What we know:
This is Short-chain dehydrogenase. The protein is an all-alpha fold and about 210 residues long.
Amino acid sequence: MSKKNKKNNKKKIDKPHYKRLHNYYNRTGFYMFIWISLKKAFWPIVGAVVGILLFNKYVYNINDGLQHMTETFSRTGVLVTFFISETILGLIPPEIFIAWSKKTEDPIVNISLLATLSYLGGLCAYFIGRASLKIDSVRNYLEVKMAKNLKNTSKWGGFLILVGALLPLPFAISCLTAGMIKYPFKNVVFVGLFRFARFAIYAWAIFSVVN
């Protein structure tokens, strides 16, 4: 082996792990995927916020609606509904439940329960993904409908789950696809803990708006 090749190999070995990760994610398009996802989410989020503000001002007072929700539905019923939603692809925006928790007698306790249920819902989605592989029709359907998610999770693993945990992207979908590719469960358990940080940040923002 020439001295030049030895020198190049040494550089590759000596390169810090985080730099190798950065190069890998840059090369495979991870950063571009995040950027595109954020751009796609930006205007819908802005539109939703503006729509909510207009609805609150001209149609129906949201605080009254949340108060009515608190008085009409039991805490158990709301929490069970939320858990099911967070397990099945995140069908209902968690922000609605975060706002609901502000109107309850124990908002901190309830927001903690919501964060925990969201986290557990993601873990359940992981096992749903694993179980779906045993059903040919379901596996074929998901592999077609979620081909891009499966491909991305295969490439980026934990970082994609982290994105699902922190950003306004369905956490359950990230965990479901992680299960389908048999991504290590212990990694999902660890990275998914960032879901609690998301709820803390969103709760701080929403609690400052909801009376």
